[in-house]
Amino acid sequence: MNTENKRKCRIAVDMMGGDNAPFNEVLGVSLALQQSDEFDLILVGNKDEIREVAAGKGIEIDDNSIVHATEVIRMSDTPTVAFKEKKDSSMVMAAKFVKEGKADAIVSAGNTGAMLAVSTLIIGRIKGVGRPTIGAEFPTIHNKPCTVYDVGASVDSKAQHLLDYAIMADIYAREIQNNPNPTIGILSVGEEKSKGNTLVFEAAELLGKSNLNFIGNVEGRDIFFGKSDIVLCDGFVGNIVLKLGESFLKFLKHKLTVYANQSIFNKLKVGLVKGALKKALSGMDYQEHGGVPLLGINGISIIGHGSSSPLAIKNMILKANLMHKKNLINKFKESFSSNE
Amino acid sequence: MNTENKRKCRIAVDMMGGDNAPFNEVLGVSLALQQSDEFDLILVGNKDEIREVAAGKGIEIDDNSIVHATEVIRMSDTPTVAFKEKKDSSMVMAAKFVKEGKADAIVSAGNTGAMLAVSTLIIGRIKGVGRPTIGAEFPTIHNKPCTVYDVGASVDSKAQHLLDYAIMADIYAREIQNNPNPTIGILSVGEEKSKGNTLVFEAAELLGKSNLNFIGNVEGRDIFFGKSDIVLCDGFVGNIVLKLGESFLKFLKHKLTVYANQSIFNKLKVGLVKGALKKALSGMDYQEHGGVPLLGINGISIIGHGSSSPLAIKNMILKANLMHKKNLINKFKESFSSNE
After folding, report:
1. Cβ contacts (< 8 Å) between A78 and chain B: which residues?
2. What is the pTM of this model?
3. Which of A8, A32, A265, B80 is deepest in the core (most CB within 10 A)?
4. Per-residue pLDDT tens over the stretch B30-45
5. HSE (side-chain half, CA atoms, 13 Å) at A27
6. Domains of chain B
C-alpha cells in the first residue's frame, strides 16, 4: 500500500469556478498539459465558453476531455444552495466523478464554502476522520514552509479534530512536502503548557500521548520563524491567521507605492529594490502556491482562491497529481483504520 | 465630568519590570521628564540600582521620587506567585499606590501576566465591566491605526465582554486616538453575517442593538487595510493576531538580510532602500508605540513589552498622562453606570 501509485491520475477540473472562469482555467490547464502528461483531465464546464477561450488563445483542447455542465455555482451562493439546487453545476458534477470512481481528484477555484460542502457531502469523509481540514503553507526563515491546519474547514474544532489534523498533516509533510520528520505545535498564547484555552489543553494531552513529533505550544510569532513545521489550531483562528498573513504582502506593496509616489528619488529607490524584495519574499505570494488540499476526504480535493491565476490553476493540477502518485488517500485510510 | 482633568497626573513607574531594568526605565523616565512636566513620577524599585544607573548616565533623579522596593517579579514568575508572594515587589507596590489613590497610573514593562493579575486584583475593575481588555494598534493604509481588542487579557471572552470592550474602545478612540467617529467590526472568517462562530453571532446581536458605530464582520485581511477602526475578538485570537503581526517586520528584516548577504550588489540595493522601507513601514515597529493600556481597570494601567526601549518607556508614561488628562477612567465609569 505504501508504494507509489502507478495508475495515471484522473483529475476533474471545475472550469467555471474562479472569478475569471473559464479564462484562467483554460490557460492553467494548458500550462499543466505542457508540463506533464502524467494525468488525464476531465474539464467540467460550459463547453462553448471553454472552446471560445481556447480558440481565442490558440490553445488546442481535446473536445472529448470536456464534459458539459449547464450550471455554475456563484461566489454569492450559499453552500446549501450550491449543493442542493445546483446538481448540474460544474463543481457538483466534478465531485460526482470522484465519488463514482471516475476521477481521483477534483480541482476548483470556485466558492470555497461550496467546495467544502460538495467535497464533504458528495465525496464523503475517510472513515475515522471526524472533520476534514485545510492546511495553508506559510513561508519561514528556513528552507521549508510552516503549514497551518485548520484554516477554515471548521470554525469550532474539538481536541480530537486537532489530533486528526495532526495525523494527516504528518503524512502530508512526509509524502508531499519532503519533510521526513515534521515537528508539530499547537497555536496558543504562550509557549508554556499552562498558557492557552480549553481546546489547547485538551489537544495537548491527546497529542502528547500520540506517536507524533509534538513539541508543545507555539505562538503567533513562531509561524514565520518556523518553530514547528506543522501548526494546529481551530479553523476560526487559522482562517484569520491565513488572511492576515496574506494581507501583509499587499500592505507592504501599498506602503512602498505610496512612498515611491512621494518623489522621483523615492521612486528610483523603490524601483531598485523591487526585484530584491520580490525574491526575498518569494513564498509569500499565495498565488504561486496554487490551491490548498482539503484533507480527510475520500478522494483528492484541491481548493483554490477565486482569483487563482493560470499559474495557480496549473499548480493545483500538479498538486492533485502528486497526491495521487504518492497514494495519499490510501495512506490516510491506513492510518485511521489502525487507529480504530 | 467630560472636561479635561486639571489635576497633575501621578504615575507610579515599575522600575524593575523590563528585561533590562532598571537601565531602560531610568533612561525612559529621563526622556519623559525632558519632554514634559505635566506629571509627577513615583519611581518604584531598588533605590541603589536606580541611583547607580542614573549616576552612570549622568542623569539627575530626585531622590524623593524613588520608593524603595525589595522584591522583583521575574518574567518566569506565575501571576499567582507574583501577586500572592511578592507583596514587596515594585509592581505590586506601584499598583497599591493606584489602589490607595496615591497615584493615578501604573506603568510597567514587566511580566504581562503578573501585570494583568496585579492590576485587576489590586486596583480592581470598574463597576459594570465584566472583563478588562488590552488593545493593540496596527498600522493601516490610512492615516489612522486599527486597534484590536482583546489581545490577551482573556482567553475565553464572551459576547457581553466584546460589547464591554467596544464601549471602552469607542471612548478610547474618541479621546486618545483623535477619531471622532470610530467604526467597529467583529473579527470573523467572512464578511457575511452568516460567517463565524457562536461568539461572533452573539456579539453581533449585542453590538447591533447598541448605539455604537458597528459595521459587522471584518476578516484577518481587513486589519492592515483599516476596514474598521476597532476590531473585536476573543483574547486568544487577538493575542495570536498581535504576535503574528509583530513578527512580520522581523521576518522581513531577516529575509532582506539573507538577500543582502548573497552578494555585494544585493547589499548595496538593500542599503539603498533600508531607509525607505523603515519610513514606509513606520508604525509597524511596536517598540515605538510604547505599551498598551489595560482598559476596564479602576485606574490607568499601561503594560509594556519586556524588551521595551527607553523610548517605549517614555511613550508609556506620556500615554498614561494623556489618559489622565482626558479623564478617561471617569468617562468609562459614566458609560458603564448609565448602562446598568
Report:
1. 194
2. 0.92
3. A32
4. 999 999 999 999 999 9
5. 12
6. 1-129+296-340 (3.40.718.10), 135-286 (3.40.718.10)
